[in-house]
Amino acid sequence: MPSLKSAMTFVTDFGITYAAVIPRIAYRMTLSCLVDPRGARRFVHDVLDATDLGGEDRVLGSLDIQELFPGDEDVTLKAPWQSSSFGGTCRLLELGCLAHVVKSQEPSVIFEIGTFIGRTTRLFGLNTPPQTRIYTLDLPQDRVPHRIGRDFVGTPEAQRIEQLAGDSRTFDYTPWHGRCDFVWVDACHDYEFVVADTASALRLCRPRGWIGWHDYWHSAPWCGVTRCVRETRGWVERIHHLRGTTIVLAQTGGSVSPGLRP
Question: Where are the beta strands (DSSP E) in the chain?
Answer without folding.
Answer: 62-63, 109-113, 133-138, 161-165, 180-185, 205-213, 238-242, 248-251
